[in-house]
Amino acid sequence: MLKHEIDSEVLISATAGPNGLAHIRVELAGKLIVHDLVELRSAVDRKRCCNVIQKAIPALSEDEIEAQLLEIDPSSLPELGCGDAESWAEPIPVERQRLPEFPLDSLPAPLREWVGSVSYSTQTPVALPALLGIAACSGMVARRIEIETGRNGYCEPVNLYVATLMEPGTRKSDVFRLTFAPLDQLEKESVEAAKPEFFTAMAERRMLEAASKIAEKKASSGNAAARKRALKLAEELGRSPLPTLPRLWMDDTGAEAVENELARQGGRLIVRGVEGGLFEVLAGRYTNGAGNFDVFQKGHACDDLRVDRISRSVSVDRCCLTVAYAIQPEVVRGMAANKAFRGKGLIGRFLFGMPDSPLGNRLIETDPVPNSVAADYRLLTRRLWALGNAVGEKPQVLRIADEALLEWQSWKAEVETMLGDGGLLQGIRDWGGKLVGLSARLAAVFHLIATDHPKAWEVPVGPPAIRSAIEVARWSIPHAQAAIGLLAGETRLNRDLSFLFQWLRRRRLPDFSRRDFHQAARAQFDGEPERLRDALSEMIECGWIRRIAPSERSVGRPSERYAVHPSLWSDASKGRPPGTAPQD
Length: 584
Prior knowledge:
Blueprint: E1 2-5, E2 10-16, E3 22-28, E4 31-38, H1 43-56, H2 62-70, H3 109-122, H4 127-141, E5 145-148, E6 155-157, E7 161-165, H5 172-219, H6 224-239, E8 249-250, H7 255-264, E9 268-273, H8 277-282, H9 294-301, E10 305-308, E11 313-316, E12 320-327, H10 329-334, H11 340-343, E13 350-353, H12 371-389, E14 396-398, H13 402-419, H14 429-432, H15 435-450, H16 463-487, H17 492-507, E15 511-513, H18 514-520, H19 522-525, H20 529-541, E16 545-548, E17 561-564, H21 566-572
Parallel strand pairs: 5-14, 7-12, 7-13, 8-9, 9-12
Antiparallel strand pairs: 1-2, 2-3, 3-4, 5-6, 10-11, 15-17, 16-17
């Protein structure tokens, strides 16, 4: 390692890096302050590196720093003492595989531009607005339209259950607001339009109830005419449903409240949220762990709902729910102890997304979603709402076009193979068994989004919608595996290893000290040093790091140092990353 002192406290060292770059390390009083990858032959890159170092140590001038960089001969840089990639054995994979990004181009044009704009404006992964937007659109036509999936005449409803799992502080609420603002406006307008009829009906009902009480009182004294009138009024009250104002959605609620609201709203409802309270209620927060999934199971399949209990009775024909949640992974981990979530098939009904966290890589300033894009999305939701309302109580049926049948049948056959022993879906058959149905629902929603026709159900579902649905379904498989892995009880060690991998990638370090990692991971390990020890031991055992001698200039008690497998930091550094001071 070449070393150059600028003064008694500052040391610049250099070793050979990937792709002809140099690893520049700057230590102040023995503490690593800056680590960067630099093209020393490039004046522009040297200037950039000087700026980084000067910002970290303002007492140094850029001229002093550049003078030291110029003394380093790029052609004679030593390899890092821990060796290059060829001196390491192939490491054993321990980190969860990197999940694919959502295929934005698979979305139909009216939705695609909005999703891309929201993702950029909020600096959130595409999967978040994509899944929420798809769910919002499906909720507009749920219960009113179905899609025929095969020659046997079986029809799949088009409502969707989606759940995006993201860390706190990733702007889930901002995306939620943008997604559902047009639906909130639709609900307000529907309420205002219904108020005159609602209050008239309420007044008429109160008058009927008052007249019924008077007639019953007179009839109790033996008045035959009053008895006849009381019975007639009771019959009239029984035929008159209790007036209710329209409602499109609910949040942070329980199963009983959903059942009651479904009955009031004619059988369809959107349940949505960003806090995951619904999942905790379903897990039995108020019922000693005994969850009530019935309405959510039937609401997904649009089955009839019948509730007959001592305290209440509910009857809903073809109840239909759309569920859209963006929740923290910790909520799902908390459900791991409740085996009913998988055993009763509720989890198998969800389209999951587990995008990588954007934290640490977001742009600080972005433009808002263009007004024209927001307006197009608002018009799309209104068009779908009007389309659904144009259908009566009997749903209209979409059919797959002849030219798309071959692709559709091939996909069904492929899914069946994946469900077999040794297949991709063997470990999550409860979810994979519903993948064809999910694909059909996606194809129907994509078709309705793309088809601007007053009777869009009369237009067959063509190859574009089928291909897009299959692409999203393929994308969803590893995300479902990861989400269900959390539900199965991801170990704490797995999470600690993931944290260590992410820290190393973010800092792009070829080596580090135990003290460095301990300082960065205090919140993660929450005062449990044995977890830090176990994570480091596992990384050594699997060949990702190995011990090296402490720094010669360590101040105080030397801390253990570890070399990092070159594939980890060099893969993270392909294309020369921007030079930054390390951040914990």
